[in-house]
Design a protein that fits this description.
alpha/beta; Rossmann fold; four-stranded parallel beta sheet; 11 helices; 11 strands; binds NADP nicotinamide-adenine-dinucleotide phosphate
């Protein structure tokens, strides 16, 4: 089972349990849907490959009735990344399906399915992009502070240490790769620290709240000035190993690297080497490749590497947010056609 699927399974468990704080987090994209170029046809919705009472309720709350998968199915709420192959098969054998809701903000686990529809011929895909921004951005800021304040090496000692080291976040230059929901929330959370923010994104267009926005082509130009580098971009072919030996060498030796996006964005062997050679202050990684990261991986032995095992958004946090995204998109499917979290199969996010 992948980490993502373990999270869906536990989200299903968490979602069906009574201890969820359903209004704890806000979805910043709620109410900001848009009408797709080819709105899907109306028809029955199926919840697959396994329904849970909580997510089934979310569909019903949107005004739909849930049906078994059949040639009449037009909408599909798909809750498993591990079983992406089955989704692929279902879409091939049920060409009438016009809308598919995916469970995660990152849809890299569905890359094969999406690639088949890169020409725009397939159903409308929506994801949870942006929905998990608050908890994930909170975790990104926590990792940033932990790395700057050297909490990982300090937590490993078992007696009073005569070191008074650590860096303050106030006034630093933070480079954020990605300009989506999570990046937006990170910028908001960083405001009290009076940091200077540069955003590196794929498309052109300035990012609200950032001092400077550049495209990925200018990544190398901004890295030498980055005191904190936070990765919050989608995992695609273009972002694979975006931060490798060359990029790590461009960072100042006092820089903190934080990755809450996907492990594939970083060349982990190059990172382990940079940490071993003290060419970086430290790294805070919520995500790795693969997950779980094998116990023998060199990153585990780096005292200045804090790995949080993909827990930036716990099942208890994501379940209510996913449920609300599902309800909103079911309403869009049945009514106003304003879908939230539309995925572009050609760009893979
Ligand atoms: N750790 C966790 O538990 C966790 C939880 C949720 C999400 N995530 C990961 O975080 C990612 C971001 O989430 P989100 O909700 O903010 O998604 P989002 O709103 O879809 O944002 C994705 C961002 O990636 C940027 N991007 C894509 N290709 C890029 C490239 N080549 N260079 C620079 N930026 C690029 C996009 O830039 P443009 O704006 O220019 O298109 C966009 O701003 C997800 O894709 C997922 O993999 C991790």
């Amino acid at each position: 089972m992948t980490t993502s699927d373990r999270m869906v399974a536990s989200a299903t468990f968490a979602a069906d349990a009574a201890f969820l704080l359903t209004d704890q987090h806000r979805d910043p994209l709620a109410g900001q849907g848009r009408v797709p170029a080819r709105p899907p046809q109306l028809g029955p919705i199926a919840v697959l490959p396994h329904a849970s009472a909580f997510f089934t309720e979310a569909v019903i709350a949107g005004g739909a009735e849930i049906g078994e998968l059949s040639p009449e199915t037009r909408g599909l709420v798909w809750l498993s990344e591990q079983r992406a192959d089955e989704l692929d098969e279902i879409l091939q054998t049920h060409p009438g399906i016009g809308w598919v809701q995916l469970p995660w903000a990152g849809v890299d686990g569905f890359a094969t399915v999406l690639a088949r529809f890169a020409d725009g011929s397939g159903p409308l895909f929506t994801s949870a992009k942006g929905a998990y921004s608050e908890p994930v951005a909170e975790h990104a800021v926590a990792l940033t502070q932990a790395v700057l304040r050297e909490l990982a090496p300090k937590a490993r000692v078992d007696r009073w240490a005569p070191v008074r080291t650590g860096l303050s976040l106030y006034g630093r230059h933070v480079v954020i790769v990605g300009a989506g929901g999570i990046a937006t929330e990170i910028i908001r959370l960083l405001q009290p620290y009076r940091v200077r923010i540069t955003v590196v994104r794929r498309s052109a267009g300035s990012m609200p709240g950032a001092d400077r926005t550049v495209t990925t082509r200018e990544l190398h130009a901004v890295l030498p000035e980055a005191e904190v580098l936070i990765l919050a971009a989608a995992a695609t072919d273009e972002t694979r190993a975006l931060i490798a030996a060359r990029e790590l060498a461009l960072l100042p030796p006092t820089a903190a690297l934080v990755n809450i996006a996907r492990g594939s964005l970083v060349d982990q062997d190059a990172l382990a080497e940079a940490l071993r050679e003290k060419r970086l202050l430290g790294a805070g990684l919520d995500v790795t490749t693969p997950e779980p990261l094998p116990a023998e991986h060199a990153l585990w032995s780096q005292a200045r590497c804090l790995i949080t095992s993909h827990s930036a958004d716990t099942p208890e946090m994501t379940a209510p947010l996913l449920a609300r995204r599902i309800t909103e998109n079911v309403r869009a499917f049945l009514g106003d056609r304003r879908f939230v979290g539309i995925v572009d199969p050609a760009s893979g996010y």
